Amino acid sequence: MDLSIIIVNYNTKDYLQKLLRSIKPALKTISAEVFVVDNGSTDGSQLLIKTSFPWVKLMALKKNFGFSQANNWALKKAQGKFLLLLNSDTEVLADTFKKSLNFISSRSKAGLITCRVELDNGELDPASHRGFPTPWAALTYFSGLEKLCSKSRLFGQYHQGWKDLNQAHQIDSPSGCFFLLRNKAFKEIGYLDEDFFMYGEDLDYALRLKQAGWQAWFYPGTKIIHYKKRSGRANTNKQEQIKATRHFFKTMGQFYSKHYLKHYPNVFKWLVLLAIWLLEKIKILSIYL
Length: 289
Known about the structure:
By secondary structure, the protein is α/β, with parallel strands linked by helices. It has two domains: 3-129 and 165-232, Spore Coat Polysaccharide Biosynthesis Protein SpsA, Chain A (Alpha-Beta Complex); 238-288. The protein is built from ten helices and nine strands. Strands 1, 2, 3, 4, 5, 6, 7, 8 and 9 form a nine-stranded mixed sheet that branches. Helix 2 links the parallel strand 2 (32-39) and strand 3 (57-61).
């Protein structure tokens, strides 16, 4: 089998339907299986799959187990030579899978690739083209220096804005919304870290992949559309926004503690964690205001 597609869904019924309708013609010449892992949705998503998309392998969960754990359950059953983690709030083109598979197959050291991920306004989703959030990259990003100097290698390390977005090139990490893995690399590296409930699991996995000697690539020869932040009816009210914000900054602390803080003096560790805590409070305050 060429491809296993894994979609984690949480209350995005309408977007999931749009995605699955776009997937079917895109798999016309590809041997594939499609999993939808539903994290206890209450919007009729599970019934939609059962009645309208019988070719989908539905894994119906009773509650929200998070992104990493849900993906891992499907990864345990996936048989494809390549494994694609795909967000439920995306839409693919007719050539997305074919071109992406051809590209990753042509580079033996490519363990992970993304195609171009566009927001629904046509702009690049910046999360799909990232460097690792080292302390310096995080500082320049949150201070606004990256925005002022986005084409600078020194100040634009997080989103790597100096690179040519019209040409294929290596990156540190794509977004988990289109995360195409070579099964050989996956078997070497293992599953997503389930300590990351929401956010950060893609960065963590990409870093582990790079440490194992594999490459991650950005391939703009085809694209998907990402209707971002739709899962769980995100951003519909202040409480949802605050909940997502807390998840995001908790993840940031987890990532730093796992990968970076052990390399720095204790005083620096506490300064980084304090900065993360302060940024979280400032963001939550801005939501209330």
